[in-house]
UniProtKB/TrEMBL annotation:
This is Shikimate dehydrogenase (NADP(+)). It comes from Roseicyclus persicicus. NADP(+) binds at D82, G133, S134, G135, G136, A137, N157, R158, T159, R160, A161, R162, I222, G245. Involved in the biosynthesis of the chorismate, which leads to the biosynthesis of aromatic amino acids. Catalyzes the reversible NADPH linked reduction of 3-dehydroshikimate (DHSA) to yield shikimate (SA). Belongs to the shikimate dehydrogenase family. Homodimer. GO terms for biological process: amino acid biosynthetic process; aromatic amino acid family biosynthetic process; chorismate biosynthetic process; shikimate metabolic process.
Length: 278
């Protein structure tokens, strides 16, 4: 594909106004003095296929995809990465020319990179992981943890059948458990991850008994509003290492930016401040 003089990228969702992606890509474009723009694109399900056909004609080199299109978009791609196919969802599309679209899912990579940046040398092979939740984000995270060598990934979800579904999808190292067993399960986990929306501003709290939580368990939350969730605060007070969820959002954006704008951007404190600015 002939590279547009001013490459454009964006994030497609419905709704989209809340997305932090324009801020983070905009920060990188300014910081590295690159030509290009990254914009929010409000697109409904009914128009998504048409929009994806037209965007490359307008100078777009790729887009991020967010709720509610991450699954549907796979059916519109001509080339789906193994990890996107395994997870059944994509968050990063690259326009390859002649109407071809490459779909990838970078959420799991973003999740692991975030923990590794906070805790250098950390690996999922350290011990069993306890994942709370079984939604779209949980799929990407369970897949990434298994890929990184987790010996067992215990999944507790309010709707038990969805946790069972992850075992069917990802295999024997996934250990589905009832949500009510969480107080016991925290004791043996090397890593605890909240992938539910609980604890997010405006959502119900994540009300779980953490009395058996202690170091060296590492605790992370993919909710990043607030930055320190009640789960992370309780874990810090118990003496555990904690990793907040903003870094996952920042790291998942790196592969798309690299592909679209040809530069490998840094995830650092400047970026965090730019994204968090009021
Ligand atoms: N940091 C990042 O980069 C990043 C990336 C992706 C997502 N996220 C955040 O992660 C969260 C989940 O996203 P998602 O796309 O996975 O959502 P999703 O597919 O809708 O899954 C939601 C999960 O939360 C559980 N849940 C919801 N309400 C609950 C309740 N009252 N009690 C117990 N469990 C409850 C659901 O359980 P059931 O199966 O029982 O309904 C399900 O497991 C969102 O807050 C999203 O903003 C962050």
């Amino acid at each position: 594909m002939t590279r547009p003089e001013v490459p454009l990228a964006g994030v497609i969702g419905d709704p989209i106004a809340h997305s932090l992606s324009p801020r983070l890509h905009g920060h990188w474009l300014r910081r590295y003095g690159l030509r290009g723009h990254y914009v929010p694109l409000h697109v409904t399900h009914a128009h998504l296929a048409d929009v994806l056909r037209v965007l490359p004609e307008m100078g777009f080199v790729g887009v991020n995809i967010t709720i509610p299109h991450k699954e549907y978009v796979l059916s519109l791609a001509s080339n789906v990465s193994d990890r996107a196919a395994l997870i059944g969802a994509a968050n990063t599309l690259t326009f390859l020319g002649n109407g071809r679209i490459q779909a990838d899912n970078t959420d799991g990579q973003g999740f692991l990179s975030n923990i590794r940046q906070a805790l250098p040398g950390w690996t999922a092979a350290t011990g069993p992981a306890l994942v709370l939740g079984s939604g779209g984000a949980a799929k990407a995270i369970v897949s990434a943890l298994l890929n990184d060598g987790a010996p067992r990934v215990i999944v507790a979800n309010r709707t038990r059948a969805r946790a069972d579904g992850l075992k069917e999808q990802f295999g024997a190292r996934v250990d589905p458990q009832d949500w009510t067993r969480i107080p016991d399960l925290v004791a043996d986990a090397a890593l605890i991850v909240n992938t539910t929306s609980l604890g997010m501003t405006g959502q119900p709290p994540l009300a779980i008994d953490l009395s058996r939580l202690s170091p060296p368990t590492v605790v992370t939350d993919i909710v990043y509003k607030p930055l320190e969730t009640d789960l992370l605060r309780a874990a810090r007070e118990a003496g555990c290492e904690t990793v907040d969820g903003l870094g996952m959002l920042l790291h998942q954006a790196v592969p798309g930016f690299e592909r679209w704008f040809g530069y490998t951007p840094l995830v650092d404190d400047d970026l965090r401040q730019a994204v968090l600015a009021p």
